[in-house]
Amino acid sequence: MSQPIDDTQRLIAHAEEELPPSTRSKLIAKLRMGVHIDDAARDLGVSPQRVFSNARILGAFGEQLDATLTAERDPALPHGTVTGYNKRCRCPQCRAAVNRRI
Q: What's the whole-model pTM score?
């Protein structure tokens, strides 16, 4: 009889495969150069949705992504609001504002 598959390990392995460390590093570098996350992700051949999905699975990467998006956000926008999100801000506070409305 075979052992049950550890779903958590499989999920992490899939996220690592889908967004390997080299791609994650390139993404963070692009964000630090001021490239919007949507554009940076597409330049690297991955959708922004996949980036955020994998960031939830890969905890250290998720923390680094959120810290970078927070550091690079436009200070003139009203963060933590749907307006900030609609103006293309993807910092944790603006994403949370949209998620609260869903």
A: 0.89
